[in-house]
Design goal:
This protein is α+β, with helices and mostly antiparallel strands and about 450 residues long. The protein has a domain of about 240 residues: Jelly Rolls (Sandwich). The protein contains 7 helices and 24 strands. The strands form 8 sheets. Strands 3, 4, 8, 10, 11, 12, 14 and 16 form an 8-stranded mixed β-sheet that branches. Strands 7-15-9-13 form a 4-stranded antiparallel β-sheet, with no helix packed on it. Helix 3 crosses helix 4. The longest helix has 11 residues. The N terminus is likely disordered.
Length: about 450
């Protein structure tokens, strides 16, 4: 499924260039949908390379959902629920053995607009006063860049206490994204704030908001949001017109890029809606969690080296360009490892910088034996020579070799020891270059 998504020296370069990679932005961030185009120059037809990324998409199509505790979903055993705003309206039944009455986790990600509404539902708060705690973990097994607000739609009242968390290492460690409560000071000892209180200097601050935790009086307010675009607007302006400013920050500030990057999300439900009164211990079936929809819009992170991402065997992977490879285009292809891998750049707008992994140049990685470097991608070798850098005579690969000393063929002189030492001494300088390039054999 696709969506608009000498040997010692060679070993040295290979080891240096192994880096984990990733990619994204499009919908709210600009296009960057073309990785390369053919152009004509004095040297003939060649490629012009550009930074590129897959289109943003609904990432809930590709996730795995996990609930903790595992038996927190209602229906086993069957249970009858009462309305929060009316304790005498107890006609909502949950039964896992009956399709029409079951509320499994998958219903948080199905098509919206059905009548009646489909939703996941937890068991009721029957063990009160023990907290009714639920963790909902969304995992992609891939690095994702967020491009739109994260939106949760609750079919029940919105929780009175909740935390949204993120992971950048596939769920091994977690960091809070935002806290939600009817009373931030009481719940989390944090002063209540909104995203409008943030500035460019405090954008990465973790806040607690009371905007999305009102009780049943506000029963028509069903959504809880984590505002991505409002944070973009701190650099790009209210209408996101100044994208160059945002791109410049993302290119130069790793913490900012990482803030909008995830491999997993976790929704921690800590206290259900209880309304404006105390908990009615005589009717605990009024208190539960129910979510009808979760929206996560984003794209595969491909380090600006791919404009397509494929979903195969339950795994997302970038279709890499620019002579890069890996699930996130995070390393150079074999034979393109002469210089350290580098992610693409959004700047200069509108094409960005591809930072293509290279084969040859006119400096240290020269084509040998009279070969010509074409667009840093391949050597155009003279007759009688072949190899990545024209370093081999064609007869070397033929049966019988090049003949003896009287064959009339000149011997190919291998690179001298002094040249190999020179390359090694200049290694640190090469690593500061943007493009990956292959080792000289």
């Amino acid at each position: 499924m696709r969506f608009h998504f000498a040997l010692t020296l060679q070993a040295l370069w290979t080891g240096v260039c192994q880096a984990a990679m990733q990619h994204y932005p499009a919908a709210a961030w600009g296009h960057y949908d073309v990785c390369k185009s053919q152009v004509y120059s004095d040297e003939g037809l060649s490629w012009d390379y550009m930074a590129c990324q897959p289109e943003a998409a609904d990432m809930t199509q590709y996730l795995k959902v996990t609930l903790d505790p595992p038996n927190i979903t209602c229906g086993d055993p069957p249970e009858t629920y009462c309305a929060l705003e009316n304790p005498y309206m107890c006609n909502n039944e949950c039964d896992a053995t009956t399709e029409e009455l079951a509320h499994p986790p998958g219903l948080m990600f199905d098509t919206e607009g059905r009548n009646p509404t489909t939703f996941w539902q937890s068991t009721s708060w029957k063990k009160y006063p023990k907290p009714l705690l639920v963790n909902i973990t969304l995992s992609w097994n891939k690095t994702i860049e967020l491009t739109e607000d994260i939106v949760l739609t609750f079919e029940s009242g919105r929780p009175e206490q909740m935390v949204l968390e993120k992971s950048l290492d596939y769920g091994r460690t977690w960091q809070p994204y935002q806290f939600y409560a009817t009373d931030c000071l009481d719940a989390f000892t944090m002063e209540p704030k909104t995203v409008q209180d943030l500035t460019q200097h405090t954008l990465l601050d973790i806040i607690c908001t009371e905007d999305y935790s009102r009780g049943y009086v506000w029963k028509n307010d069903k959504t809880v949001r984590f505002e991505i675009k409002d944070r973009f607007a701190l650099f790009a302006g209210p209408q996101l017109h100044n994208m160059a400013s945002l791109y410049g920050q993302l290119d130069t500030t790793k913490k900012l890029r990482d803030f909008f990057t995830i491999t997993d999300l976790r929704i921690r439900l800590l206290r259900p809606a209880t309304g404006a009164t105390m908990v009615d211990e005589n009717n605990l079936s009024r208190y539960f969690y129910a979510i009808s929809d979760i929206k996560v819009q984003g794209r595969c992170k491909c380090n600006l080296h791919a404009n397509s991402c494929v979903y195969d065997k339950e795994k997302l992977s970038c279709e890499c360009e620019h002579n890069t490879t890996g699930p996130d285009c995070g390393r150079c292809k074999r034979n393109f490892q002469g210089r350290a891998w580098s992610a693409g750049s959004y700047l200069p707008i509108p094409k960005g910088t591809a930072n293509v992994s290279r084969v040859c140049d006119n400096e240290l990685l020269r084509c040998q034996n009279g070969g010509t470097c074409i667009s840093n991608v391949h050597c155009n070798c003279p007759p009688g020579y072949t190899g990545l850098l024209c370093e081999k005579r064609r007869c070397e690969s033929e049966l019988g070799g090049c003949g003896g000393p009287d064959s009339g063929q000149a011997h190919l002189t291998p690179p001298s020891t002094s040249r190999l030492l020179l390359l090694l001494l200049l290694g640190s300088a090469l690593l500061r270059e943007a493009a990956c390039r292959p080792a000289v054999l």
